[in-house]
Amino acid sequence: MYTLATIRDTIRVTPNKFTSDLNQSILTIVRGDLEGLVDSELGVVVAVTDAKRRGEGKIVPGDAAAYFDSEVTLLTYKPQVNETVEGFISEATEFGAFLKIGPVEGLIHVSQIADDFITYDAKVPGFVGRDSKRTLKVGDQVMARIVSVSMKNTIPDSKIGLTMRQPGLGKKEWAKLKKVVRTEKKKAPPKGGDSE
């Protein structure tokens, strides 16, 4: 789930950054420090959208830089279990497909691709369903549901498990509408009575 979060932090600004707009300097510094960072509470910091200093800077003896208390607005992505996500297949391997969802990738294990026996075809590279003949290859746009999340300190170390074994998930052309046939039942005559 994408969210906007506001945090307060103390930002170190070196003297060569004093000549330009101070808020712009703080924004540039914070973008370099925080974008791409993984936080256990916030998730992945996708972008720093704003940074404003709050008050005057503080100087520490022996350091030419000034430290400014600042308010920073972040766009973050934190995957949630049972969240439905949409993305593109970025890689296909024998054990599953990787789905690019925002700033991270999740794994759809081969057993979670569809309710069918799935085989991997290295020539495509992609997958084919034995009975349904459904195909899944690199570049396909799909919908999946998050079933597990393990966020670590870096994006490559974080793990997201996905499934497409539900109606409405997978490629759009996989979704088929089932015809609903309504039948009316005839009422049985009352027991013990005459039927007219």
Automatic annotation (TrEMBL):
Note the InterPro entries from the entry: NA-bd_OB-fold, RNA_pol_Rpb7-like_N_sf, RNAP_E/RPC8, RNApol_Rpo7, Rpb7-like, Rpb7-like_N, S1_domain
Q: What SMART domains does the record tag this protein with?
A: S1
Q: Name one Pfam family in it.
A: S1
What keywords sit in the KW lines?
Cytoplasm, DNA-directed RNA polymerase, Nucleotidyltransferase, Transcription, Transferase
Set out the biological process GO terms recorded for this chain's protein. Answer: DNA-templated transcription initiation
- Provide the protein's localization: Cytoplasm
- Lipid metabolism found in the keyword field: no
Q: Which GO terms describe its cellular component?
A: cytoplasm; DNA-directed RNA polymerase complex
Top-level taxon = Archaea
Q: Which reaction does it catalyse?
A: RNA(n) + a ribonucleoside 5'-triphosphate = RNA(n+1) + diphosphate
Protein's UniProt keywords contain Signal: no
General function of this protein = DNA-dependent RNA polymerase (RNAP) catalyzes the transcription of DNA into RNA using the four ribonucleoside triphosphates as substrates.
Q: What is known of its domains?
A: Forms 2 domains with an elongated structure; Rpo4 packs into the hinge region between the 2 domains.
Assembly and partners are described as:
Part of the RNA polymerase complex. Forms a stalk with Rpo4 that extends from the main structure.
By what name is this protein known? DNA-directed RNA polymerase subunit Rpo7
Question: What's the gene?
Answer: rpo7
